[in-house]
């Protein structure tokens, strides 16, 4: 009888362990095609200066097509009045970068990165949004321990929900972070014409560029780079190696902003932080 009880208890323990193990999902990839509106916020926080500045609030329309290896993003943000469109089409080896009415068209060569939860991520548990939407949270660690990212996706179909990238600095007792909130996600592309050559690119400047097409890196880079593309910006962005703008740089930007305000004096010193940041950005002080 004791032996039977021991076996029963053992089986129950194994069963419970299997249930616990099964509750931890595997890292997943999003659908092959989807589109969404991404609400983005990038901020800088300093304990030393008692400072918290929202550097960027933006809206990005995203079109992702891993079947044909292409992405498109249309950007609007609080720090740049110019609308920006980027189309990377590795299937056709062509890329378009449109800044206002200016277009750069490039021969594109590189690899396409699927939009997945990275395999080296750690599972951080789940939560339920609303009444029944189960969302899994994943933590992504880097060799540089000052950096950390959190990725939230739905348990069903691995639909992106939120992503946050964070970096701290001991030197300045400060930190920067970028948060992307995915809304209106559709598991299809409404029209493949969004990847067609834009009419403004008829007489575009032509060049050649070697880079990987990584949508996650593109989104994070924009949040951490204050959403400030420039005409020369296209040739050097979107590589995972260039994903992060250091917190020290962001902090120094703010110091420069305060210095310029003091130099100008008068009414300029009374500008709101957001207005002052816009003036600095438009004058290429950053």
Features:
alpha+beta; outer membrane lipoprotein receptor (LolB), chain A; 12-stranded mixed beta sheet; two-stranded parallel sheet; 4 helices; 14 strands; 42% strand; globular; disordered N terminus
Summary, kept brief:
The protein is α+β, with helices and mostly antiparallel strands and 286 residues long. 21% of the residues lie in helices and 42% in strands.
Provide an overview of this structure:
There is one protein chain. The chain is α+β, with helices and mostly antiparallel strands and 286 residues long. The protein has one domain (33-249): Lipoprotein localisation LolA/LolB/LppX (outer membrane lipoprotein receptor (LolB), chain A, Clam), CATH 2.50.20. It is built from 4 helices and 14 strands. It has helices spanning 2-22, 215-224, 247-264, 273-282; strands spanning 33-46, 51-65, 70-77, 80-89, 94-99, 102-109, 112-113, 122-129, 133-141, 147-154, 160-169, 174-186, 205-210, 213-214. The strands form 2 sheets. A 12-stranded mixed beta sheet has the order 8-9-10-11-12-1-2-3-4-5-6-13. A two-stranded parallel sheet has the order 7-14. The longest helix has 21 residues, at 2-22. The radius of gyration is 23 Å and the shape is globular. The N and C termini lie far apart (78 Å). Residues 1-22, 226-251 and 266-286 have low confidence and may be disordered. Residues 1-22 form the signal peptide. Pfam families: Ependymin. One of its GO terms (molecular function) is calcium ion binding. It comes from Trichoplax adhaerens. Keywords: Signal.
């Amino acid at each position: 009888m004791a032996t039977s009880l021991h076996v029963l208890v053992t089986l129950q323990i194994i069963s419970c362990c299997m249930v616990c193990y099964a509750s931890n999902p595997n890292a997943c990839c999003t659908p092959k095609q989807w589109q969404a509106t991404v609400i983005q916020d990038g901020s800088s926080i300093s304990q030393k200066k008692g400072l918290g500045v929202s550097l960027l609030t933006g809206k990005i329309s995203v079109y992702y097509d891993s079947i044909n290896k292409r992405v498109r993003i249309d950007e609007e943000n609080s720090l740049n009045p110019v609308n920006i469109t980027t189309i990377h089409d590795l299937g056709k080896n062509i890329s378009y970068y449109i800044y206002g009415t200016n277009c750069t068209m490039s021969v594109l060569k590189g690899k396409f990165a699927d939009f997945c939860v990275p395999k080296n991520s750690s599972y951080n548990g789940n939560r339920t949004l609303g009444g029944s939407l189960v969302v899994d949270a994943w933590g992504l660690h880097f060799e540089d321990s000052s950096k950390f990212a959190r990725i939230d996706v739905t348990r069903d179909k691995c639909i992106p929900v939120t992503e946050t990238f964070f970096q701290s600095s001991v030197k300045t007792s400060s930190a920067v972070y970028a948060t992307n909130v995915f809304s209106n996600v559709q598991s299809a592309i409404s029209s493949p014409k969004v990847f067609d050559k834009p009419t403004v690119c008829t007489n575009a400047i032509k060049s050649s560029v070697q880079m990987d097409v990584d949508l996650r890196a593109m989104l994070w880079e924009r949040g951490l780079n204050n959403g400030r593309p420039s005409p020369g910006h296209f040739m050097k962005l979107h590589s995972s190696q260039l994903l992060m703008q250091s917190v020290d740089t962001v902090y120094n930007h703010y110091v420069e902003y305060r210095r310029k305000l003091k130099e100008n004096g008068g009414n300029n010193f009374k500008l709101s932080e957001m207005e002052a940041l816009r003036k600095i950005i438009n004058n290429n002080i950053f």
